[in-house]
Write a structure and sequence with these properties.
Strand order of the largest sheet of chain B: 10-22-21-20-11-18-19
Largest interface: A-B, 62 and 60 residues
Shape of chain A: globular
Oligomer: heterodimer
Distance between the termini of chain A: 11 Å
Helix content of chain B: 40-55%
Largest sheet of chain B: 7 strands, mixed
Number of strands of chain B: 22
Order of helices and strands of chain A: HHHHHHHHH
Strand content of chain B: 5-15%
Radius of gyration of chain B: 36 Å
Radius of gyration of chain A: 20 Å
Largest sheet of chain A: none
Helix content of chain A: over 70%
Structural class of chain B: alpha+beta
Number of strands of chain A: 0
């Protein structure tokens, strides 16, 4: 699937953002590991936890999308509307990350209750006396909860998952995204800084552009759903063809 | 574009640029609060910070995490199951096989959730039942068990609905709600614990009994009265005491609110919790550590936090009626829907009612907000006696001030130095300083301060000093020179010195305003006159202005005579009631309560105790180590008046939060119960709504305890410029009969030709 590949790339490039946000968590997990293999195990488990949550969210989004389409009045082409909404949202998130929007959304002022959930589990990686399996369990749970942290990139791809209108496809989309974030995150957790400062910002901008691109592709696909007489005389976009099959 | 990108600020957590163009480098940030690019980074920063502190609920968290994992799986299988319903039966080959597989998977994955979270709930409910209490927990447990039982039977019989997802989500939500409550409580008590952590755990006791000096380390609570202990630089004092050897610069801010470190010599009293900045001192304990100054503050704050205030009692009373009512509604709705729509339908309705009406939010609505606010206030040197003090202060309409020691420092200050002619001014001042240096009278101290500010030091030696108690002193500045007379106008007359007309006028006017005066004369004539005033606190008028901006009516009560009080009122721009005895102040407050409703009285808590007690909220200033002043509802540890508008803002914010919380908890319950009882609410949504409601109430409350950055601080910020007459340096003074405006600033060193 072309789209899943694109999502994977989006995740891989987007993980320059993850490094900033979740990188410190990955480093914290590794602090208690004595050997690099045990650290690798922890990092992989942590990523697994994250990917699991993403997949769950993707499945839920896909299910939600399917139900939403079902509820829509017949005159509206549900699939098309959903795809276009998802596309617009992807473009919005991409532009926001690029800082190309003229306004700034003020991050919500709130008290972080999530801190109480994730912090102790992250700390679990620091203790050396504990059994490896216990540590891995906690690390997995830390990943599970980390996946729930609010993240514009995740939301963007969730919109895509909703557009898929299927539990399985939704989960697949988000799994591809999660796996895309894995390489950089695991490398960071194991070896420390892979990308620093300016380089990270540049890669992040490319990722944001990627998201914008995905948004346009999705909107194009949504437009393809409208069966307008004469529209298809020109050869259709390959992605749309793919999506319709 | 590049320039803009370079100038853009970056997220304080992840280092990526902040979205939007608003924050650029050349426009200074509004506040020093960290800026984050997204909510995610804000949360992540909090998580990283959190790693420093301990959380005791690790076991519960692991259970919850694993249960969340299994519940997520159950949800996915259920969603897949539901989406199979979209197709017509038989349309897809193998659909029915899929249905069976998914139902079994859902069952298998829901068993761990039941074991992990269901068992503790059942145990808890059973425990309460054995004590004869029927709780919502019991009904929840029964409902969840029924949902699971029903679903097991359906799965095994291959027919009927399954409700595994409902059971799982309900269990997760209930546990999550309880856990969040625990975290919330722990966080709101953090402020109190941070005070406790200031006291050292060990103390170095010096044993002098065996002749030499022997040092032993022992736990702080073993220190007894009379023990000598040693405190090194950088350490906090473990107990109250008196310095016996060497001296040290102590930072007593935590205890007395005094922000400047003070040098303490042997024989001086020091307080537990003070920070030793530079000296290696030996101290005799005058009280065990458990009775030290800091401990008293901590005790006061803890007592305040634990006292059940009126709002809370109201919430409790409501909850007592509410819980049985909910149980009845749930059972009734369950039976009604069960009869009309089958057992499963009835069960789901009853569960939804129970979940939505779970009074968790109600239980924490008031206490969490109060703890958070009281703890935060304590960190800023404001002690509330209880939650009621907090809510009362928020509702205050007028604030009355005692003058001496509250609006003024209680120390006199030279207001005016008048000489007969310009030429002799310097000489007169020099002589006055020399004589004042020989005197211990507090007015002499003010003269020395005045001279210091003018850059003059006493250099002349004093001979043949003759003290006349209550009048002044006589001395010579040279061995064979003139005799100088320094003291009251009466002494001048007694020494047959005559007043030139300017000085005569000055003294008469000072008399009319009851200002203290000191005169200096020699060779048959009075040469200079000092007029004194009480020194207003530098921020007094700014604070009064800030209070007016908070729509409060500040007023001053004083025992001063009318003329003096009028000048004070003129300077501060507030009404002043003068010539009041302590009992008159009490009457004034009583009168004001009729007029305004709730009033606050600010005083030093000593001579104005009756008035403080009579006011709705008594606020004592500069309590320092003496937090046990019983009459005050609020203690400001320091003399810093600016804490007052801040405390009022905080109190208002806290009260607003409590009201929001209670309103939310009630409104949500009423609407939710109505929806649920009519069978329009799936228990899963009810459970989710319950968690959201708890999160709202808890985070709303905890925000109170968070340090600044928001509107609260800016509201409390004092105006930087004031337009109080007489406070402006260089203001031209008129020879008005009422005299100069109050207060006289430090710039009165100029000669006043007006007198």
């Amino acid at each position: 699937m072309v789209e899943l590949a694109l999502v994977f790339v989006g995740g891989a490039l987007g993980s320059s953002h993850c490094l900033g946000m979740c990188g410190p968590f990955a480093l914290a997990l590794g602090s208690g590991a004595t050997t690099w293999t045990s650290n690798l195990r922890r990092q992989a488990t942590y990523t697994l936890g994250r990917v699991f949550t993403y997949a769950f969210l993707g499945a839920a989004a896909g299910y939600g999308g399917a139900r939403l389409t079902e509820q829509m009045p017949a005159v509206l082409n549900g699939a098309a509307v959903l795809a276009m909404l998802a596309g617009v949202f992807l473009i919005y998130q991409g532009l926001k990350s690029l800082g190309w929007l003229p306004f700034q959304s003020r991050p919500a002022q709130g008290f972080c209750l999530a801190a109480g959930a994730i912090a102790p589990l992250l700390r679990a990686g620091g203790g050396q006396s504990r059994r490896e399996l216990t540590v891995l369990r906690d690390v997995f749970l830390a990943g599970l909860f980390t996946g729930l942290l609010p993240c514009g990139l995740v939301y963007a791809f969730l919109a895509l998952a909703a557009g898929s209108q299927s539990v399985a496809l939704g989960a697949a989309t988000m799994t591809a995204f999660g796996l895309g974030t894995a390489p950089l995150m695991i490398a960071t957790g194991c070896g420390g800084a892979v990308l620093r400062g300016a380089a990270r910002q540049r890669v992040f901008q490319v990722a944001a552009l990627c998201v914008v691109l995905t948004g346009f592709v999705t909107i194009g696909r949504g437009l393809g759903y409208f069966e307008i007489p004469g529209w298809r005389t020109a050869p259709g976009c390959p992605l749309c063809e793919q999506a319709e099959k | 574009m590049n320039d803009v990108a370079a100038a853009r600020a970056t997220c304080d957590y992840c280092g990526l640029p902040l979205p939007g163009f608003r924050r650029v480098a050349n426009s200074p940030p509004q506040d020093t609060a960290p800026a984050y690019c997204c909510l995610g980074c804000r949360l992540a920063a909090a998580i990283v910070a959190e790693r420093q502190s301990e959380t005791p609920s690790h076991g519960v968290l692991t259970r919850l995490g694993l249960a969340v994992f299994f519940a997520m799986n159950v949800m996915v299988f259920t969603m897949a199951l539901w989406s199979l319903d979209v197709y017509e039966p038989g349309e897809q080959l193998g659909a029915s096989l899929w249905v069976d597989v998914l139902r079994y998977l859902a069952m298998i994955f829901s068993i761990p959730v039941l074991l992990l979270l269901g068992l503790p709930l059942f145990e808890h409910a059973w425990d309460r039942l054995r004590r004869g209490e029927i709780t919502t927990d019991l009904l929840l447990a029964v409902g969840v068990a029924a949902a699971f039982g029903f679903s097991f039977v359906s799965t095994l019989r291959d027919q009927g609905h399954i409700y595994f997802e409902v059971g799982c989500v309900v269990l997760v939500a209930v546990t999550l709600g309880r856990w969040l409550e625990a975290i919330g409580k722990q966080k709101s008590l953090d402020a109190l614990r941070s005070l406790e952590r200031l006291l050292p755990e060990q103390v170095r006791r010096i044993d002098t009994t065996s002749g030499g000096q022997h040092e032993t380390c022992l736990p702080i609570h073993e220190l007894a009265r009379g023990d000598i202990f040693r405190v090194l630089p950088g350490e906090r004092l473990p107990a109250d005491g008196v310095i016996v050897r060497r001296e040290a610069l102590l930072d007593e801010q935590m205890v007395t609110g005094e922000s400047r470190p003070t040098l303490k010599h042997p024989g001086e009293t020091v307080f537990a919790g003070s920070l030793n900045l530079d000296g290696d001192v030996l101290i005799t304990a005058t009280a065990p550590a458990s009775e030290g100054a800091l401990q008293r503050i901590i005790d006061a704050v803890c007592a305040a936090a634990s006292a059940r205030c009126r709002v809370q009692q109201l919430a409790d009373r409501v909850a007592r009626v509410f819980t049985p009512a909910v149980i009845v509604i749930a059972l009734a709705a369950g039976v009604a829907h069960g009869v009309s729509g089958g057992g499963a339908q009835g069960l789901m309705t009853a569960l939804a009612v129970l979940l939505i009406a779970c009074p968790c939010a109600l239980g924490v609505a008031a206490p969490l907000a109060i703890w958070a606010a009281v703890g935060r206030a304590a960190r800023h040197g404001v002690l509330f006696r209880d939650g009621d003090a907090l809510t009362q202060l928020a509702g205050v309409r007028a604030v009355f001030f005692d003058k001496t020691g509250t609006l003024t420092t209680g120390r006199p200050q030279v207001a005016e130095f008048v000489t007969d002619s310009d030429a002799s001014r310097e000489e007169t001042l020099a002589a006055a300083v020399a004589l004042a240096s020989a005197s211990t009278h507090h007015l002499s101290g003010a003269v020395r301060d005045f001279a210091n500010r003018s850059g003059l030091r006493a250099s002349a030696e004093v001979f043949n000093l003759q003290n006349l108690p209550g009048q002044g002193l006589l001395a010579r500045l040279a061995a064979q020179g003139e005799t100088y007379v320094w003291g009251s106008p009466r002494l001048m007359a007694a020494q047959a010195l005559t007043f030139p007309p300017t000085l005569q006028t000055a003294v008469q006017q000072a008399d009319a305003q009851c200002l203290p005066v000191a005169c200096l004369g020699w060779s048959g004539q009075v040469r200079g006159v000092f007029l004194f005033r009480e020194e207003l606190r530098p921020d007094a008028s700014a604070v009064l202005q800030a209070l007016s901006q908070q729509h409060l009516q500040p007023q001053v009560l004083t025992g001063d005579r009318c003329a003096s009080a009028a000048a004070l009122g003129h300077a501060l721009g507030v009404p002043v009631q003068a010539e009041l005895l302590p009992e008159d102040k009490l009457l004034a407050i009583r009168q004001a309560r009729h007029e305004y409703g709730r009033v606050a009285m600010v005083g030093d808590g000593l001579n104005d105790a009756p008035a403080l007690a009579e006011a709705s909220v008594g606020i004592a200033m500069g309590c320092g180590a003496d937090v046990s002043r019983e009459t005050a509802d609020v203690c400001l540890l320091s003399d810093d008046l600016a804490r007052l508008p801040w405390a009022i803002s905080l109190a208002r914010q806290a009260t607003r939060t409590i009201r929001q919380n209670l309103f939310w908890a009630f409104a949500y319950n009423v609407v939710g119960v109505a929806l649920a009882a009519t069978g329009r609410l799936n228990p899963m949504w009810a459970a989710a709504a319950m968690v959201v409601s708890s999160v709202f109430v808890i985070s709303n409350s905890l925000r109170l305890g968070q340090e600044p950055t928001d509107a609260l601080e800016t509201a409390a910020a004092l105006p930087t410029t004031t337009s109080v007459p007489g406070n402006q340096p260089g203001a031209v003074r008129q020879p008005a009969p009422v005299g100069p405006a109050w207060p006289l600033p430090h710039s009165t060193g100029r000669k006043s030709s007006a007198w």
